[in-house]
Amino acid sequence: MAEKVSSSSKAVFALAGVLFLAASGAILGWFRQPRELRLDPPLSANLDRIKLMPNGISGSPPESYFAIGKPYESDAWNLSQGKRLYAWFGCGSCHGDGRGGVGPSFLDGWWLYGPEMVSIVASIRDGRPHGMPAFRDRMTSEQIWQLAGYVQTIGSYKPKVAAPSRNDDRQTRPAENRGPAKILFDEGPAGVHPDQGPTP
Amino acid sequence: MTQDGDGLRDSSMEGSELHRRLTAIWSTPSGLWGALSTVDHKIIGRRYVTTAFVFLALGGVLSLLIRLQLAQPEARFIGPDRYNQIFTMHGTNMMFLFAVPVMQAMAIYLVPLMVGTRNIAFPRLNAFSYWVYLAGGLLLWIAFAVDTGPDVGWFAYVPLAGPEYGAGKRADIWAQMITFTEVSALAVAVEIVVTVFKQRAPGMSLDRIPLFVWSMLVTSFLVIMAMPAIMVASSSLILDRLVGTHFFNPAEGGDVLLWQHLFWFFGHPEVYIIFLPAVGMVSTIVATFTRRPVFGYLGMVMALIATGVLAFGLWVHHMFVAGLPRLGESFFTASSMAIAVPAGLQIFCWLATMWAGRPVFKTPFLFVIGFMVIFVIGGLTGVMVASVPFDTQVHDTYFVVAHFHYVLVGGAVFPLLGAVYYWFPKFTGRMMSETLGRWIFGLIFTGFNLTFFPMHILGLQGMPRRIYTYQPEMPWSGLNLFISLSAVILALGFLLFFVDAIRSARSGSLAPANPWGARTLEWATSSPPPPYNFARLPVVDRLDPLSDDIEAVPVASGLRVDRRELLTSSVVHASPEAREASPGDSIWPLWAALASTLMLIWSIFSPWAVVWGSIPLAITLIGWFWPKGVPEDEA
Question: Which value does ipTM take for this structure?
Answer without folding.
Answer: 0.84
